Amino acid sequence: MSAFRVAVVDAFGAAHGHVDAFGAVGGEVVQVQSTPELPFGVDPVDEARFSRVLVHDGDVDALAARLAALRPVAVVPGRETGVELADALSERLELPTNGTRLSAARRDKYVQIETLRARGVPAMRQLRTADEAELRAWHEQLTGVAVVKPLRSYWGDGVSFCDTPEESVAALRRLRSRGTVHGEPIEEVVAQEYLVGAEYILNTVSSAGVHQLTDAWRTDRITANGVRDLVVAQVLMRSDEQPVPELAAYGRRVLDALGIRHGAAHLEIKLTPDGPRMVEAGARMSGLPYYTAELLGEGQLEWIVDAYARPERFRARAGRGYRRRHAFAWAALVAPAAGRLVRYRALDRVRELESFRDLTMLIEPGSPIGPTTYDRGYPATLTLAHPVDAVLQRDLNTVRYLDGAGMYEIE
Question: Terminus-to-terminus CA distance in the chain, angstroms?
Fold first, then answer.
């Protein structure tokens, strides 16, 4: 019999790793599914690996009573769709909790930024609106590029970079006509100023308000297929490498302002000429497999286990910088056109790169393909690793040279 139980809300995708992570220290995981149907965009997981599976039918109190009978030591959000339910359940069960008071600020992109501003954390200018005239007038006063996106979405879906007020209004109309990736209708959007600067990702874990930076990444972006700032690579940084210390200090202020005292967080921050500015934050673990346990000895999952199951060990180690064993990057290819993919023309040359590690083909030859416009549209992804940063960067640059219209034979 296991020593303890932990409930994970929506343990799909990378969050399924909670099962092994808690299992390694004698725990077992209860899967709490946030909706009767699987959340949009997730694949089924092996339910036999959970000690129990509970499905939320809309009655939080009834679900909390069922979960209480299993005596979990924690309720953890596995992915974005599980954040608010995890807050509600952990609060009702009087377990370590971020509480429900600021749940909206951890999910709603507009409320999030307004919460930061209200608590004295530097933040971008923005507008929440359903009115075309109001959006047009706001963009005219902005005198710059606006980013229009759904209030509640992820994977970069539905994000538009708008140079003119007319483009912002057109983006509002498109979003209202199509809804979110979850199938939810869109009535309002958030329009935000475009932040100029390099973007970074900080992944953290907190225990009773003590925050630990587990890994930091530089994000590489390109403009392609009508999309500005399309993500094409993320490079693991050293914890003592500039500007990580400055970003980490800002990130701690963000976590405090959003009431994230327990568990994982995923912060997207731009370093602008005026200093760090939050793009958006997620109160859950990172959604991509960054191989951090192998690269650093431990990653978010291992720190999550300590935060909830071994808090004394967490506090004894918190504050130390992580040690990167070698340079590492995740990268993606970007398809330029629609049709049927006949073949990739230069994957052999990609595999010959000195730092090449592995490649995952997401669109096979013979399958339909379309222009990559957001995070779920990559035709292939790959990882690179090398002891020398300069070799890794050279190979990343070579991937960008090889990728493009010449990579794809499409009919």
Answer: 57
Contact between residue 208 and residue 167 where contact means Cβ atoms under 8 Å apart: no
350 sits in which H/E element: helix 347-351
Residue type for 110, please?
Answer: Y
CA distance 240 to 244: 7
Residue 173: helix, strand or coil by DSSP? helix
- Positive/negative CA dihedral, 5, 7, 11, 14: negative
**Interval 70-91 mean pLDDT:** 97
pTM flag (> 0.85): yes
Overall residue count recorded for the chain in this entry: 411
Burial status of residue 343 (CB atoms within 10 A of its CB: 0-12, 13-18, 19 or more): exposed
Buried b (16+ CB within 10 A) or exposed e, 379-389: bbbbbbbbeeb
Exposure class string for 350-370: b at 16+ Cβ within 10 A, else e? beebebbeeeeeebeeeeebb
pLDDT in tens, 19-55: 999 999 999 999 999 999 998 778 899 999 999 999 9
Distance of CA 266 to CAs 96, 182, 246, 263, Å? 19, 20, 16, 10
Residue 191, exposed/middle/buried by CB under 10 A (0-12, 13-18, 19+)?
buried
The reply to whether omega before 44 is within 30° of 0 (cis) is no
CA angle 104, 107, 113 (to 5 degrees): 80
